[in-house]
Amino acid sequence: QCLTLEVSQDGAAQGIVNYRTSGVLMSDLPPPLSCQDKPEMERSDCLIGNHHFRIGNIGVADEPEVLRLFAEAFGHTPDDRWYHWKYSRGRGEAVGLWNESGQLVAHYAGLPRTLLWHGNRMETVQIGDVMVLPQVRGLMTRKGPFFQVCTRFFDSRVGEGKSYRLAFGFPNQRAMTLGRALDLYHDAGKIHLLRW
User: Fold this and answer.
1) Model confidence over 8-32: pLDDT tens digits?
2) List of E strands, the chain
3) How much is the mean pLDDT over the chain?
4) Taking the CB of residue 175, how many other CB atoms lie within 10 A of it?
5) Residue 138 DSSP code
6) How many degrees, rounded to 5, is the angle at CA 115 between CA 109 and CA 117?
């Protein structure tokens, strides 16, 4: 079975994403909900093993920390305009995890996308810029930094009665393996056709 999603973004290119699916993950969905405003989330305490962290929304003031984490997680620095291009004017939103020193150690983001499902508009979010500081990736717990930022992002934004009906993304193999192991990600199939 082929699933075709028409993707559009205000002020940007439009395209078609066509997935080949087994029909297990995707089924007829109820009519889409309109995008709702998200209340600001205060940062709250988070304990991972014996380590204390704070978790909450990423804001404009966090840009220097996001750029530092990007460089440490991916081994290169993004273009100076990258952060504003992706996250200014409500284009994207993210959840972060800070250590006791106030250093951002994990980041999980999404970019709003409107999809057409059987001719109906559906507000969704495309996951991206998932990063964890290499030194905290190995905390010996199943519910480590990646799990914490991912579940906080999903719990606060995705699902029935929330801003987005579903989240999707194109993770690398390592991220997909971890997401599956933690029962956070499910494979919807291979991309059959992508046009922009």
Assistant:
1) 444 444 343 333 333 323 333 333 2
2) 2-8, 15-20, 44-48, 51-57, 93-99, 104-117, 120-132, 166-169, 191-195
3) 78
4) 19
5) T
6) 135
* Token code pair at residue 62: 């966090």
**Tokens 């109820």 belong to which residue?**
30
- Three-state DSSP at 21 gives coil
Q: Which two tokens stand for residue 24?
A: 């297990």
Residues in the chain: 196
Distance CA 105, CA 97 (A): 6
d(CA 156, CA 146): 16
| Residue 146 DSSP SS3 | helix
Per-residue DSSP letters for 76-105? SPPPTTHHHHHHGGGS-EEEEEEETTS-EE
CA dihedral 170, 173, 176, 180 (to 10 degrees): 150
Query: Hunting for tokens 């704070």 — which residue is that?
Result: 54
**Degrees, nearest 5: CA angle 124-187-136:** 85
Which stretch of 2-11, 33-42, 176-185 has the lowest confidence by average pLDDT? 33-42
